[in-house]
Amino acid sequence: MRRLDVRKIVLDVLRQGLRALGRMLSTIPAGWLVIMGVLALPIAILSVVVALVFFVLVALLAVLALLFYLLVWRPVFGTRRRQEKVIEAEYTVKSDDDQ
């Protein structure tokens, strides 16, 4: 029985993958790759920056909404609840004969 050499199999697969990548890249002109790299890299960086700024703005909006709730809405609705007290009273009605 032959023993499988895992390291040799992995190296063969990597070698075949690199050959396939080289064949694919050889069909594309090098100038086109350079142009796309020069154009795509700033666009990718700008996309990440825009996403981070958007995330920061959403987090800031959430914090401001929480502050607005705590400082404005909660005191207003809290005092309104306190004013709505139920007052219970007992009363008797005098009849005409008692007068």
Structure description:
76% of the residues lie in helices and 0% in strands. The protein has helices spanning 6-26, 30-83.
Features:
single chain, 76% helix, mainly alpha, 99 residues, 0% strand, 2 helices
In short:
The chain has 99 residues and is mainly alpha-helical.
How is the secondary structure organized here?
Layout lengths: L5 H21 L3 H54 L16
Judged by helices, strands and strand pairing, the structural class is mainly alpha
What portion of residues belong to β-strands? under 5%
- Mind describing the biggest β-sheet? none
Number of strands: 0
H/E series: HH
Mean pLDDT: 84
Looking at the structure, what is the overall shape? elongated
Are there runs of 5+ residues with pLDDT below 50, and where? Answer: none
Output the radius of gyration. Answer: 38 Å
Count of alpha and pi helical runs: 2
For the terminal residues, how far apart are their CA atoms? 122 Å
Give helix % range: over 70%
